[in-house]
Amino acid sequence: MGALGGNCTFEFSRRITATSMCCSWPQCAFLFPASQCNVSLKKQRHRGILSSFFCCFRDYNVEAPPASGPSVLPPLVEENGGLQKGDQRQVIPIPSPPAKYLLPEATVLDYGKKCVVIDLDETLVHSSFKPISNADFIVPVEIDGTIHQVYVLKRPHVDEFLQRMGQLFECVLFTASLAKYADPVADLLDRWGVFRARLFRESCVFHRGNYVKDLSRLGRELSKVIIVDNSPASYIFHPENAVPVQSWFDDMTDTELLDLIPFFEGLSREDDVYSMLHRLCDR
Questions:
Q1: pTM for the whole thing?
Q2: Beta bridge partner(s), residue 226
Q3: Rounded CA separation 180/57 (Å)
Q4: 20 to 30 A Cα–Cα from 25, which one of 19, 94, 236, 242?
């Protein structure tokens, strides 16, 4: 943990501990990323229609989700519910090896690098159908023949974070949102081509009402895979590979991504991800 350095080590560890203990993350019903902390319940009620919008267009799921009633706008964005009490203690079924992995072979440029899977909504950006005066992007999305404008805010320091991550790792965008929304957002966000691949909802496993990102389906050695996500439900199959982050909505003083950079610089030099992540959890 020496690579983290004094105050940064303490601050990052404190954030991870607080995030990891937040087990009842409320469901983001429509436009925005999956689960959020309890402190955002009031915001989540206002976002309800929007979140559902981002969650309904799917090509397929490993299990078909239960039928839902009509909504004002169909869900387009990531919509993972919070972990229920006791979920972490339950035995998670080990998925069978896929017939085909989600990622192609690593390029020569990424040979020997670890693979970092990065979430989109509430991890890197926050999106809304409600006009935002300081939006970084406005993305038109077609739903049932009607064009809707999606207003996107970038999390502070996301540019520095992505550029440094692209230097250190093979980076993959993996979101439970649908491609018709997430792909154009990624085009605008990733100006440097950091993401070697983009995975959307159809690449998730639908498990107990949540879209889970099954890292064993990537085609990478799990001891060299990390997932950065604000939703514990997204990595419930592989919690030992996770670097949790706090959900972000509009706090322009947030430094979470900036604080993560020294940690990842140290992690990139480790033989496998587990030893450093275990030390982090033990602090």
A1: 0.72
A2: 116
A3: 9
A4: 94
